[in-house]
């Protein structure tokens, strides 16, 4: 079998009991062996300031190194005020500097949004995609993943309860594994 792809999983919420983190953990548990997924933490990244890049904070260097070692990026995020949570946008900005093209360049990605409410974080999902277009990250188109009423997906231990929800997440991560492999084949210069 080919080597597993390293997948950086970014969680857009810093909250301890975050539903987005639960969704991320569920996706990681359901991932096929062709993916090696791990959560790359973003909560310790100082706010991006170009001046600081003269001597980058250690957390920025750690984050950039982890993204540099990744073959793909999975983003799981809530929606804040119909857009991207600041912590996630900051992580995207930190990873986008100082090199050009940046460490994000060419990495296949998928965006999964989740909300306790009915709209499933659609606004955040598409605002993240706007940044990924600029960063030249091919984003999986289907299945789209806007998870509404996310609280109903989990029991008290953070396990996915409903089989429908589990099947949906399995479909997302399985499609992503194929998508990430396809894009990486192209990046290696091989015919997929
Ligand atoms: C929210 N929330 C929210 N939900 C939503 O569906 N659309 C929105 O625009 C917003 N806006 C918003 C702003 C701010 C500042 C907060 C703190 C919250 C509610 C949000 O979806 C809810 O708190 C989630 O549980 C947050 O995700 P995690 O932390 O559970 O992953």
What is the CATH architecture annotation?
3-Layer(aba) Sandwich
What is the number of independent domains?
A: 1
What structural category characterises the helix and strand content? alpha/beta
Rg of Cα set: 16 Å
CATH topology assignment: Rossmann fold
What percent strand?
Answer: 5-15%
Q: H/E series, N to C?
A: EHEHEHEHEH
Written description of the protein model:
The chain has about 190 residues and is an alpha/beta fold. It has a single domain (about 5-185), classed as 3-Layer(aba) Sandwich (Rossmann fold). Helices cover about 35% and strands about 15% of the residues. The chain is built from 5 helices and 5 strands; from the N terminus they run E-H-E-H-E-H-E-H-E-H. It has helices at about 20-30, 60-70, 85-95, 120-135, 165-185; strands at about 5-10, 35-40, 70-75, 110-115, 145. The chain has a 5-stranded parallel β-sheet, with helices on both faces. Helix 1 (about 20-30) links the parallel strand 1 and strand 2 (about 35-40). The longest helix has 25 residues, at about 165-185. It binds ligand FNR. Ligand FNR binds near residues 13, 20, 82 and 115.
Short description:
The protein is of the alpha/beta class and 192 residues long. The protein contains 5 helices and 5 strands; from the N terminus they run βαβαβαβαβα.
Keywords:
5 helices; Rossmann fold; alpha/beta; globular; binds ligand FNR; 14% strand; 5-stranded parallel β-sheet; 5 strands; 192 residues
What's the layout of helices and strands?
Blueprint: E1 5-11, H1 19-30, E2 35-39, H2 58-68, E3 72-77, H3 86-95, E4 109-114, H4 122-134, E5 145-147, H5 163-187
Helix pairs in contact: 1-5
Bound molecules: ligand FNR.
Ligand FNR binds next to helix 1.
């Amino acid at each position: 079998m080919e080597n597993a792809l390293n997948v950086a999983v970014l969680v857009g919420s810093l909250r301890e009991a975050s539903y987005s983190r639960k969704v991320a953990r569920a996706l990681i548990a359901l991932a096929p062996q062709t993916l090696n997924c791990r959560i790359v933490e973003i909560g310790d990244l100082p706010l991006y300031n170009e001046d600081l890049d003269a001597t980058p904070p250690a957390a920025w260097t750690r984050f950039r190194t982890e993204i540099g070692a990744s073959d793909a990026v999975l983003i799981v995020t809530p929606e804040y005020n119909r857009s991207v949570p600041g912590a996630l946008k900051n992580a995207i900005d930190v990873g986008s500097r100082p090199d050009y093209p940046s460490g994000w360049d060419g990495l296949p990605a998928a965006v999964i949004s989740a909300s306790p409410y009915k709209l499933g974080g659609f606004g955040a999902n598409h605002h993240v995609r706007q940044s990924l277009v600029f960063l030249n990250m091919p984003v999986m188109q289907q299945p789209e993943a806007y998870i509404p009423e996310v609280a109903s997906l989990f029991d008290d231990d953070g396990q996915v309860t409903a089989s429908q929800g589990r099947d949906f997440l399995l479909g997302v991560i399985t499609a992503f594994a194929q998508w990430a492999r396809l894009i990486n084949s192209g990046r290696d210069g091989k015919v997929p």
